[in-house]
Amino acid sequence: MRKSAPPASDPFRMGRPVSRFRLPQKFFAGCVGFTLLEVMIAMAILAITLVTIYQSQSQSISMASSSRFLTTASLLAQGRLAQIDAADPREVVSAKGDFGEEFSDYTWQVEVGDVKEIPLLKRIALTVTNGRMTTRNTYRLILYKAVLP
Fold this sequence. Notes:
Blueprint: H1 36-86, E1 95-98, E2 106-114, E3 121-130, E4 138-146
Antiparallel strand pairs: 1-2, 2-3, 3-4
């Protein structure tokens, strides 16, 4: 069997066998790579973009946590105020407590006081606090209730 000459359409081979894993030298002729400055600029752009994305993700998680707290605390406070509102206003006193095992992170505190300007009103302030959160962990509702003699 006789070896045939390489086809004329193959400018890189020129009669030499080409390895499967190594490209011929002429393949890289005329190609220009990236300079160090271009690589550094690309890395800086990538770093700025990643920092922005991570900051946005962190802010999103923080906002979700804050929203969850406000939703839960407002519902717990409304339930506790409904119990206070149903009771006789003369029997409502300052107290502290929790919301049981289901909401073990949340505690409540009721402060009862008189309104100086209007003697028939009582000021009832309810504060719900989340013990796990370190900032913005307090929700406060104030109820004014008439106390008839």
